[in-house]
Amino acid sequence: MDCQPAPPKARWTTVALFAALCAAYAAENRPCAAVEARLDDAAESHSTDDAPFQVTIEISEIVDGKPHPIDRHLVIFKDNRAYDFSLVPPMDVTVVDWNEKQMTVLSRQKSLQSSIPIASVLQTAAQIRVFAKKNDAEERLGISAQATRTADGAVELAFADYQYKATTHQATTPQQAARFAQFTGAVKRLNLARHRGAPPFARISLGNEIASKGEFPKNVQLTIGNGSTTRTLVSHYTAKDALSPESEDRVNKVQGMMTLYSDVPLSDLP
């Protein structure tokens, strides 16, 4: 998925603090947890077609005006599951299984795996939403950020020191667009549970806005920072309506990984 560098330490420490402290508000989390569940289910409710397809994501950082590749992923959708294969070291695989309602991260370098219920991932995001609302931090974490369409059809969204701009194209079917947005939301919330990357809420909103028009992202540009201290990353997406033989083989091998790899807590994965 979009390779987002860790934010400045102070900002991410704030988010991690939210995750730790929000457990104290468990009794108050039901309304917000329901919001997360509705967001996650929105795409699935429109997905009557489960035809396989795949999306390649290539991520580059712009340095001195030139793109420098830093990450590459292949995301395969089949049988109500999404398989996110990292194509660069450490070559991890993340499986979002809506049939079993869980997510599994497979470390190919260490032959380890860890699974977490989707409900737990939603709950983590819900807890942070609750705590952010109590502390007037919704704007700072991008929770209240709303995507807008420009005159040329691009989608923009900004919060704090993060600015997104996406170009899009029409998906083959609205169901494909919805399933990809649902996958994006799932992995972004998983990153939050693992304290990785930027706060996910704005990127989820961006993905939902794109899918609402039956579209796929084509390019998503993320600029972090202001003035002279900025970083710019661009993610390029290429979708195919059918799976290649290589992709079918990748999916088939995942079951063997799940059988052979040792189970560890999510926090113990590299």
Please, could you describe this protein's structure?
The protein has a twelve-stranded mixed beta sheet, sandwiched between helices. It has six helices and twelve strands. Helix 3 (118-134) crosses helix 4 (174-193). The longest helix has 20 residues, at 174-193. The chain has 270 residues and is α+β, with helices and mostly antiparallel strands. Helix content is 35%, strand content 33%. The chain is globular and about 50 Å long. Strand 7 (148-149) and strand 8 form a beta hairpin.
Order of helices and strands: HHEEEEEEHEEEHHEEHE
E-strand count: 12
What spatial form do the alpha-carbon principal axes imply?
globular
The main β sheet shows up as: 12 strands, mixed
Q: Estimate what percentage of residues fall within beta strands.
A: 25-35%
Gap between N and C termini: 18 Å
DSSP helix count? 6
Structure at a glance:
This protein has about 270 residues and is an alpha+beta fold.
Which characteristics define this entry?
single chain; 270 residues; alpha+beta; twelve-stranded mixed β-sheet; 6 helices; 35% helix; globular
Please outline the helices and strands.
Elements: H1 9-21, H2 30-45, E1 53-63, E2 66-78, E3 81-86, E4 93-97, E5 102-107, E6 112-117, H3 118-134, E7 148-149, E8 155-159, E9 162-170, H4 174-193, H5 201-212, E10 215-226, E11 229-240, H6 245-260, E12 262-263
Parallel strand pairs: 6-12
Antiparallel strand pairs: 1-2, 1-11, 2-3, 3-4, 4-5, 5-6, 7-8, 8-9, 9-10, 10-11
Helix pairs in contact: 1-3, 2-3, 2-4, 3-4, 4-5
